[in-house]
Design brief:
The chain is an alpha+beta fold and 79 residues long. Helix content is 15%, strand content 32%. It has one helix and four strands. A four-stranded antiparallel sheet has the order 1-2-3-4, with helices on one face. Strand 2 (28-35) and strand 3 form a beta hairpin. The longest helix has 12 residues, at 4-15. The radius of gyration is 12 Å and the shape is globular. The termini are far apart.
Length: 79
């Protein structure tokens, strides 16, 4: 398994989004990224070797993707 920075960079290229943010719990990785006016999240259950198809999150209001802050993702092992 590579470093988180390497995994995030590889996923960003494959998933074609901007401002990727990565969260992990065990071998599961969750990658949030912006694309146009939408926020997407993709999940990997194999430590970042592959990712499932990204899902579009429901947004209320305006998405503001800029140089300093993009979408964020947090994961826990509780529902």
């Amino acid at each position: 398994m590579g470093t988180l920075a390497t995994l995030a960079a590889a996923a960003a290229v494959t998933l074609a989004g901007v401002q990727p943010q990565l969260a992990t719990i065990g071998d599961q990785l969750y990658l949030a990224f912006g694309r146009g006016d939408t926020v997407h999240v993709a999940r990997s259950s194999d430590g970042g070797l592959s990712f499932g198809a990204p899902v579009v999150l429901p947004i209320t209001g305006e998405v503001s993707l800029g140089m300093r802050r993009g979408p964020r993702v947090v994961v826990t092992n509780t529902a």
